[in-house]
Amino acid sequence: MNKFLLILFFVMFVNTSLLSEDNFEKGLRIAKESYESTRGYVDSESDQMMILVDPKGNEVIREISGKTLENDDPNDGDKSIIFFNKPKDVEGTVMLSHTHVNDDDDQWLYLPALGRVKRISSSNKSGSFMGSEIAFEDFSGNDYRKYEWEFIGEEEYEGEICYKLVSIPKYKNSGYTKRIGFTDKLLRPRMIEYFDRKGELLKTLYFEDYQLYNDKIWNADTFRVVNHQNKNKTIYKWVNRELNVGINKKDFEKSSLLRLAD
Amino acid sequence: MNFEAIIEKYTVSILDHRIKTLIAILLLVLVATAGARFLEAPSGYRGFVESGQPNYQDILNLEEKYGMIDTLSFVIKPNNGDIFQKDVIQLIHELTEASWQTPFSSRVSSLTNFQYTTVDDDDINISDFISDTDLMDENSLQELKSLALQERTIVNFILSESARVSFVNISLDVPEDTGFEDPIEFANEQKAYFNTKYPDIFVTVAGSAMYSNNFQTTARSDATSMYPGFLALIIILSYILLRSITASAISLIVIFLSILPSMGMAGWLGFEAQPPLIIAPILILTIALAHAIHILSIALTNMNEGMDKKKSIVESMKINFTPVFLTSFTTAVGVAGVNFGKIPAFSEMANTVVIGSTFSFILSVTILPIIFMLMPIKTDGKSSVVLNALSKLGDLIYRFKLYIITFIGLASLLLINLIPNLYFDDDFDSYFDRVDNWVKVKNIVNDEFGSSFFIFANLSSEETDGITSPEYLKKIDEFARWLETQDEVVTVTTVSDIIKTLNKNMNGGNNEFYSIPDNKPLNAQYLLMYEFSVPYGMDLKNQMTADKSESRLLIRLNMATSKESIEFNERTDEWIKNNLQGYQTDGVVGIPIMMPYVYQENTNGLMRGLLFSFSFIVIVIGITLRSLKLGLISIVPNVVPFILSYGILAIFTNIVTFSHTLSILVSLGLVVDATIHFLSKYKKAESLNLNASDAIQYCFKYVGFPIIVASICLFSGFAFLLQSSFQTNFILGGMCALIILIALIIDLFLLPALLLIFRRRNVV
Q: For residue B683, how many C-alpha atoms fall within 13 Å in the half-sphere facing its CB?
């Protein structure tokens, strides 16, 4: 009987703590759960294609392939390598990034035509990725630690009830003042609106083609970005994505860049 | 039934159906006036260009690729010393940050956020040129100064060579049909804030958006500063001239009911409220006033002579219907000639005047006689002093006709000799030279930077990713350096400058590597790296296309007149033809390149318009007066005023702008009016078989006074435009006032003298 009471108290306590959760805490909790649902991939490999579409409908295609390595240290960011394949002139260029949660990322670029590895400044994560409408900072946009969160309600998006979350970048050089996004009940971000430094709607990122990888991780295989100001569009696709493939961790060191490039 | 009988029957019939007529006319006026709310806010300089204009098409093509060319710029100039002082740099830093908040801004570039590359062995750092303003001391400031002055993309773009003036440039991407008000309002708030915070540093707003917005602000300030005064003047004038409060009130009613629906129709037709449109109400007002005075003064004269009220107005209508119609018509035809020009803002003004002229005719022959009948009119029964004076003038002219002709003939010959000194030129940078604040900024910028204008040139490699090829980069560099040798150009920057800087920095900052590598992949990889390193709003999208097949040069222009700009453009096209085979380019593109062509086409068009309007008017006069002789004589008083006024202009200046040309078309129809009134009365006198002296006396009695009155009104109307802060309105007003004044003198002296001489020969 005492045991039962104890359990009852415990359940009540947990319930009240959940009930007393405010919208900031709730937003953060959802963002954290969403982020954590994508963790545990160990590493991944994929080919990526980017289509840049101008307002007249002209298209430019960029092709890259990439590897990422999950960081065991929960207080640090993941590592990634990007191989540039198209346009032809930049074929063989490799970029290695060590992302960090609170500090600037470390980035190195191997330029085959120069035959040298250069370390590049990376406090500028707000810049465009290869002339697209996607910024560097958008790729790590799901990392809950980089934003202040607020849950502002539930709304239907594409026929599903979603959490509506406002997130404000903590990173001072961010190109945004605010994001408003929908995350569905499977904790998958479905759409994010970005507001620029003057508080105007800049662009919308749509997460499309969700696939369940290794029976546990949802990844959107298409990012579709519409810039509302310059009317450009970018479609970013992941193909042949594989998780937990067993990539050598040493590949993600600066010293391996030259070797990897060949 | 002859024409006069028809008019008599018509006038009597509208007077009998006064209420029905009144209601019908007022309804028409009301419906037309309702359109006023659709008058569009001016689109700045773009309203001065037809959409099909080839140079404008070049600008639109460029904007499609690289975004809008319009910018707002903060001009920063410390009262003492140069930019490299701690508080000045701090101001620039704060202002740069604040500028990102500008509505519709797409990028902000300044000395502090200039993307500066530093190298440390294999570490490449591309970041803000100045980010930490707290740690600056005198040494670091001097170092920054010398570094800045070595950057060719800084000097003369955001920092003057003397380092005394700096810019914070805001690129705008304003949606179609949206003006620059919001960004400008924001910029002015910033200016006010920084002026208070840093009282020793001059900060103000300039840039092409500001220039463009001047059209709107001057239109508004012109309207508010000129209209009330002008109105007061007209009320006083019409009272002095008609010496009857009721008659003045009637004139004012006719005037208002002519202006309101005209502006309303301008709204229905989707016209823009550009500064030239400000002239339209003033012109319509004078036209309507002239009609009212012609009709009323004769009706009042008739009443003074003992006629009853109805007969007085019917008789006046009989005499005036034809000339009122003719003058409305010729004014409309004259002004309509402006449509041969190529500037929409002026065509819209002209067409509004055409509409106003039509309304003033309709109202003068409907509402005016009706109100005249409805209102109590008192006359003093005394013959006017002016009429006596005019009668004396008639005598004098009869006696001295040969002297008058000789004197005016000689003066004309003398002044004609000066006219060949005149040449066409224009300077659209001078449009707002009458706006004090603008001129102050303009002078600072022009002194330090050559001019405030940028132009562009797009060079297409005609292949995807072609701009990184060494051949292309060397060509574009050659093009840029050639442009820099031209007097009209201050400095140029291109993608080749970026590549050269990167090549140097990737090679340890060694100046020997400040060159274009002969290696396409390397150039492409440099650009890729550069793009990875720059933040939001600092990318290369404003200077190269996404597929990297085309890039553009940014050119800071020196001050140049229209003529020089056209020569420069032609020289550049020639150079391109000889040196840039295999590449596609529209040549140099921009507002300062486009406007001279707009003026040139416009002036040529206006000349054709003038020819059209003039011949049309002469024919119309000949036909209505049914006299070849009078038609031919009418040419003299309608041409001489223009010759004399251009001769007088040549005493003061050599430059004829398109606004001078415009003044001929605007005043032609008005000058003709007086001639028509005079000649139609002269014809009437001839039909009464009066002798030469009496015929002239008859004309002076019936039209001398109204002609003087109408001319005074027109003269004052145009003279009022001298207050305009819009240079074109100022010139137009001055020229038209001069022409009207000379025309009055010619009509009062030369025309009667000529009529006398030709009459005598006929008799002999």
A: 22
Task: Say how far apart CA B243 and CA B298 lie, in whole Å.
Answer: 13
Range of the domain at A75: 22-260
Q: Which long-range contacts (C-beta less than 8 Å, at least 24 apart) are formed by A150-156?
A: A150/A23, A150/A24, A150/A27, A151/A23, A151/A24, A151/A26, A151/A27, A151/A30, A152/A23, A152/A27, A152/A180, A155/A182
Please provide residue B516's backbone torsions phi and psi, each rounded to the nearest 5 degrees. Answer: -90, 120
Any domain includes A84? yes
Average pLDDT over residues B658-676: 85
Q: Is residue A4 part of a domain?
A: no
Please report how the helices B181-197 and B86-99 are oriented relative to each other, as an axis angle in degrees rounded to 10.
150
- CB contact under 8 Å between A111 and B534, yes or no, is no
Interface of A with B in 67-126 (CB under 8 A): 84, 87-91, 93, 95, 107, 109, 111-114, 116-126
Name the residue with tokens 């937990």.
A244
Ordered DSSP codes for A103-136: SPPEEEEEETTTTEEEEE--S-TTSBSTTSS-BH
Residue A19's pLDDT is 58
Question: Kindly report the CA angle at A239 between A233 and A240, in degrees rounded to 5?
Answer: 170
Beta strands in B222-291 (DSSP E): none
We report the CATH number of the domain holding residue A215 as 2.50.20.10
The secondary structure of A31-43 as a DSSP string is: HHHHHHTT----E
- CA–CA distance, B675 with B683 (Å, rounded to integer): 12
CB A225 within 8 A of CB A128: no
Specify if A3 maps to a domain: no
Q: Which has the minimum average pLDDT: A181-190, B257-266, B422-431, B565-574?
A: B422-431
Residue A195 pairs with which residues in a beta bridge?
Answer: A178, A201
Count how many domains chain A has.
1
* CA geometry: angle B516, B517, B521, nearest 5 deg: 120
Residue from B461, B467, B503, B536 whose CB has the most chain A CBs within 10 Å, to mutate:
B536
DSSP B662-712: HHHHHHHHHHHHHHHHHHHHHHHHHHTT--HHHHHHHHIIIIIHHHHHHHH
Q: Distances in Å between the alpha carbon of B147 and those of A78, B84, B116, B137, B315?
A: 38, 11, 10, 15, 86
Set of chain A residues whose Cβ sits within 8 Å of the Cβ of B534: 124, 127
Closest chain A residue by Cα to residue B121: A118
Beta carbons within 10 angstroms of residue B266's beta carbon: 27
The tokens 């002469």 sit on which residue?
Answer: B618
A200 touches chain B (CB under 8 A): yes
Task: Tell me whether residue A165 is in a domain.
Answer: yes
Q: Identify which of A54, A127, A131 has the shortest CB distance to residue B535.
A: A127
Beta sheet of B454-460, edge-to-edge order: B489-493, B550-557, B454-460, B588-589
Mean pLDDT of B652-658: 85
Look at A18-22, B42-46, B392-396, B591-595 and tell me which has the smallest mean pLDDT.
A18-22
- Global pTM reads 0.82
> What is the distance between the alpha carbons of residues B247 and B238, in angstroms, rounded to a whole number?
8
